[in-house]
Design brief:
Blueprint lengths: L17 E2 L9 E3 L2 H6 L5 E3 L2 E8 L20 E5 L13 E2 L35 E10 L7 E6 L2 E2 L1 E6 L2 E7 L5 E4 L7 E10 L12 E2 L3 E2 L3 E6 L2 E13 L4 E12 L3 E9 L5 E8 L3 E11 L11 E9 L4 E9 L4 E4 L2 E4 L2 E2 L2 E5 L13 H13 L4 E3 L7 H10 L2 E5 L9 E2 L2 E2 L13 H15 L5 E5 L8 H13 L5 E2 L17 E4 L3 H9 L6 E6 L10 H10 L3 E6 L7 E4 L6 E4 L29 H11 L4
Parallel strand pairs: 27-28, 27-36, 28-29, 29-32, 32-33, 34-35, 35-36
Antiparallel strand pairs: 1-11, 2-23, 3-16, 4-5, 4-7, 6-14, 7-13, 8-12, 8-16, 9-15, 10-11, 10-13, 17-18, 18-21, 19-20, 19-22, 22-23, 24-25, 25-26, 30-31, 37-38
Helix pairs in contact: 2-3, 4-5
């Protein structure tokens, strides 16, 4: 029985970023048996996407407080489509801003515990007049086959803070807009009809950590899914495939976590190659945690850009009577990423990142992108020789990483962190109230974001580099994020650019020297003066207006300096939205500032090599030409 009471003051407190949320885990798929797994259709997943009852309130004081009670009169509620942004449903103002916080010039705010705690923070968001609230309600029927099973709900993306109820009972709370938040519904769920309710706030203490250069939206903007966990369930898998490029051999080490409600028996693990041939299998006794030491597999097919061979890892959970309770699977790849002699390498060869930064974007649905959008993006990367993507500046939809695995796209997997406006003001470095900085009360919130990023995506071969976030200066808390990644996953390099502005932490943060928009001669002066880390431009060639003309000067560095690892163009797609023009009645693309929002950075939302309607810009010819020289096997 859940005795936890929701508290609206959690919105103000950086030390409360979740309540009742389940620990982050791998994104492996699970099925009720082997046949369902072969079909790729799980009877253990139920989508809650679609039409929800909905009420919009301009601020917390005006919200329908008891709306989650099953007997609440919701006759005044409207409807909304999930996934989607509340602003794009015609409620709440659309607004774009780059570095400033959206309340600048309207409200005076400073982050909790900054400036020696001299500024009161209680009530900052919970009592604000400018913090809109969305109240969502959905009825669903529990499938008969799920009765008696444990049931959880996973929200893959909710911006920005959410409270959750089921059948009138409080379940939990979560911040962090771009990573899955999963909750156990088992104590509150009942046979037949159930009522799920979510209260979403546009701003919370998380707003200080989510100051990305983008349109500021809120709402349930990614998939919502119910999961039924069988009697024996694989909670987490951490597959560590290792590849030795010298002789082409590989090994596999595994760490598995299980939970159960019936007596557990054994699990059968099977690894098959890209042609479906079994290359290794093992039977283990199911325990809460099982560590399997590296098994030698002999010659393996490596995962690489041109031929991204994927292996399938299957784990069958059996109960004490030998009956299969669950079949789980994930795809993995054998590859070795390393920094050796100061050079970034994949499978022994020098790696040159011909990359692009990619916000998730659609001119129709904003950041609620579809599978079709993602598939178009992958095809666009491939035909233009773009071999790498930085997920700027948050984790993407889960499906994106699977597509990158399958197509041999290198991923720099960025953690959801950007506090740009807290340290850079009017283009000057002024970190007097920077968060997370070294403020102890902000440490756990950012570490939690790093952990969610790692645990969800750790098994993806396309993830070559972890990134700690973007433009958040540097301090003890970001150093602790670096230590976390190094501790759990010493084999992948870690990236972070912001330490450039606070070089005191240079020895402790980032395995690569990362810069933004450095002119080529600055790169040369670093690379010619006994460099100790590979050099990477995490953002360069700012593609705004008629740009990308100076690309050759950067590409020439590739030939001159083996320690130059390439870079990521800013950025992939213009952020603009289709709107019907009030005067002409025609459909037009509108950019930042076109929605009368202030402050705004206007057309700075349009820096893509692709227009918002997904047609390529003339600048793409430059990209295709220069990247085409290096996007090939040596």
């Amino acid at each position: 029985e859940n005795t936890m009471e929701p508290d609206i003051r959690w919105l103000d407190d950086p030390e409360v970023f979740q309540a009742g949320r389940l620990p982050a885990h791998s994104d492996h798929l699970f099925y009720e048996g082997e046949e369902a797994m072969e079909r790729g259709e799980s009877g253990l997943v139920l989508s809650l996407n679609g039409t929800w009852e909905f009420h919009y309130s301009p601020n917390p004081a005006g919200r329908p407080a008891g709306f989650y009670r099953p007997d609440f009169d919701r006759s005044a509620f409207g409807e909304i489509t999930v996934p989607g942004h509340i602003e794009l449903s015609g409620r709440a103002r659309i607004g774009y801003i780059n570095t400033m916080y959206p309340w600048e010039g309207h409200r005076y705010r400073r982050p909790a515990h900054s400036l020696e705690g001299s500024h009161p923070w209680q009530g900052m968001f919970s009592e604000a007049e400018d913090n809109p609230v969305g109240s969502y309600v959905k009825r669903f029927t529990l499938p008969a086959a799920w009765e008696g099973k444990r049931v959880s709900v996973c929200f893959e993306g909710v911006e920005q803070a959410m409270y959750l109820w089921l059948n009138g009972c409080f379940v939990g709370y979560s911040e962090d807009s771009f990573t899955p938040s999963e909750f156990d519904l088992t104590p509150f769920i009942r046979p037949g009809e159930n009522v799920i309710a979510v209260e979403v706030y546009k701003q919370s203490s998380a707003a200080w950590l989510e100051d990305q250069d983008f349109f500021r939206f809120f709402g349930i903007f990614r998939d919502v899914k119910l999961y039924a966990k069988p009697g024996v369930h694989l909670e987490d898998v951490w597959a560590k495939p290792r590849y030795n490029p010298e002789n082409g051999t590989g090994s596999l080490e595994l760490a598995l976590s299980f939970s159960w409600t019936t007596a557990p028996g054994t699990a059968r693990i099977c690894l098959s190659d890209s042609r479906g041939r079994t290359v290794w299998q093992k039977e283990i006794a199911i325990e809460e945690k099982v560590a399997i030491p590296p098994a030698d597999l002999g010659i393996v097919e490596p995962w690489e850009r041109r031929d991204p061979r994927l292996y399938t890892l299957k784990v069958l959970q059996m109960n004490g009577k030998g009956k299969v309770e669950e079949a789980a699977q994930c795809r993995i790849g054998f590859r070795k990423v390393e920094i050796r002699d100061g050079i970034l390498r994949l499978n022994g060869r020098r790696l040159v990142l011909c990359g692009v930064n990619r916000h998730e974007w659609s001119a129709v649905t904003g950041r609620a992108v579809t599978r079709e959008d993602m598939e178009w993006d992958i095809a666009c990367l491939e035909r233009n020789h773009i071999n790498a993507v930085r997920t700027c500046h948050y984790p993407d939809q889960i499906a994106w990483y699977h597509l990158c695995d399958a197509h041999g796209i290198y991923v720099m997997a960025e953690t959801n962190l950007e506090s740009h406006g807290s340290w850079q003001k009017m283009n000057l470095v002024e970190p007097s109230w920077n968060v997370p900085g070294s403020i102890p009360q902000w440490r756990e919130a950012v570490l939690d974001r790093a952990k969610s990023n790692f645990h969800t995506f750790k098994n993806h071969p396309s993830v070559l580099i972890w990134s700690l976030g973007n433009e958040s200066y540097a301090g003890d808390n970001i150093r602790d994020m670096q230590h976390f990644f190094k501790e759990v996953d010493p084999e992948r390099p870690v990236h972070y650019e912001g330490v450039y502005h606070n070089p005191a932490y240079r020895g402790e943060i980032s395995d690569m020297e990362s810069r933004m928009y450095a002119p080529p001669e600055e790169a040369v002066s670093y690379l010619e003066n006994a460099p100790d880390k590979p050099y990477l431009l995490c953002e360069y060639m700012h593609c705004m207006g008629n740009s990308l003309g100076g690309m050759k000067a950067y590409m020439d560095l590739i030939e001159r300096f083996p320690m130059y690892a390439g870079g990521f163009i800013w950025d992939f797609i213009d952020q603009a939205l289709w709107v019907r023009d009030e005067v002409s009645g025609k459909k037009v693309l509108r950019y930042g500032g076109d929605f009368d929002e202030r402050p705004t950075d206007y057309e700075f939302s349009g820096n893509g090599i692709v227009f918002a309607d997904r047609t390529e810009k003339p600048a793409m010819q430059e990209v295709r030409h220069y990247y085409g020289r290096y996007d090939k096997e040596d």
